[in-house]
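Run folding on both entries below.
>entry_1
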Amino acid sequence: MIERIETKQRMSRIVKHNGLVYLCGQVGDGETVAEQTADCLSRVDDLLKKAGSDRKHVLQAIIWLSDMSDFAAMNEVWDAWIPEGFAPARACGEARLARDVLKVEVIITAATIRSSLMSNGEGHR
């Protein structure tokens, strides 16, 4: 079964299927890439919670920067956000984003907490 959450004509903010969570691209507010990344990851946290997941269950992250010279500043925020030992598969590239003021966009795929417990045998009795 496919579950779509916060669906509009163009997109859903969350899509769940077979224990996986797909988030639409997230951007954040702020003047600097660090501020935008922190706000963006806060939005990711909110969506993951709504989907029954969290940052320890992130499987993949695709990060787009409007300027690769912001890579180190974005990584400082990212490294503080992702729990040690739970780094996902990740790619980062440069792209022209939807609005000129945007410096970063993050796309996340995660496992639900429940599916992760089941695959580890912790959910079976």
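>entry_2
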Amino acid sequence: MAALVVIGPGDPGDPGWVEARSVAGIAELARAGHTVVVTPAALVGSAAGHAGHAEEAAELAVAAVCVWAGARVLRTTRPGPVRQAAEMADALAGRRPPALTRRGLA
């Protein structure tokens, strides 16, 4: 599977990337072997109906779901938090090792 890439809104994309506009579209394109690019804020749209902090939380949640579904490129104005959410989703899906592991010894 391709590496996770986070880019800004104005950054050029690779000609081989395919844009998805829904979570179902992401899964379908990923199964077909395409490198899927998605803009989480566009998928949040007006569906959340929130502003400010809730809007950021919604974008992070959408980014995580998109990565879980197979998106490998995320276009966002919040690269740090989106990358963190995406890497967590990748770790939970078993596609990358967790950043930190601890063994509980009592």
